[in-house]
Amino acid sequence: MSSFKELRPSARVGVLVPTSNPTVEPELHHLVGDDVALYAARFPYTPELDLAARIERYPDVFLANAKAFGDMELNAFMAAMTGASYGLLRDGDDELCAKLSAATGVVSTTACRAIRSSLEALSARKVALVSPYPDWLTKRAAAYWKDCGFELTRVIMMSEEFRAYEMESDEVAETLAKIDGDACDAVVMTGTGMLTIPAILDLRETINATLLSSNLCAAWWIMKTVGSKGSDELAAACPALANCLF
Hints:
It is a single chain. By secondary structure, the chain is α/β, with parallel strands linked by helices. The protein has helices at residues 24-32, 51-64, 83-86, 89-104, 111-121, 135-147, 169-176, 197-203, 214-226, 232-237, 239-243; strands at 11-17, 36-42, 76-79, 108-110, 126-131, 151-157, 186-189, 210-213. The chain has a single domain (5-243), classed as Rossmann fold (3-Layer(aba) Sandwich). It has 11 helices and 8 strands. 44% of the residues are buried. Helix 1 crosses helix 9, helix 5 (111-121) crosses helix 9 (214-226) and helix 7 packs across helix 8 (197-203). It is 43% helix and 17% strand.
């Protein structure tokens, strides 16, 4: 008889997702295992604003939607977006996470802070950054990681336009193949909208550096926060990070 473990979760996590992002839920569901239930809410749809204008207002959107799950008893909350944190730098992002925790009543984070926590758990200081963002946002991303104390060994911009939601796995793999793994401790693929797990699984053993992505780090943060022992899928994608759960 089936245990229906996924219907009796040990923890519930609320995830706030950018409106048109097709990747957060599938990758997180794949990685967290069936003992953690994920519940998603989406940003308001604002097609009248360009990317820059949306990103500027997203920290306020995070806070305005902190109660999107009503009286549901959550164990953790995540705003699954990196772009909005980059302009805030480290201290501003930490302040936003504190406000989110106060508003939701549970431990809360942004995707950027989840990545940072993952890098710190791995004692990774030298980072190669892979960005699906345009130049201006890639520069903000680089400034954020430098402000957090990491040394950027290389920054690769994958496109002149924002294409995170439509990047194919072979494009991601081709970009990863350009990285000198001996020059860095970890490769960070920023952007929760970019599908990364297939490329990570394909190249994990051929690149001499830990491969991380926004959603991979987000899944690890969720497991660490709710006390999960992890999943086989997380261990397959990043054994080093999975080992940090124990």
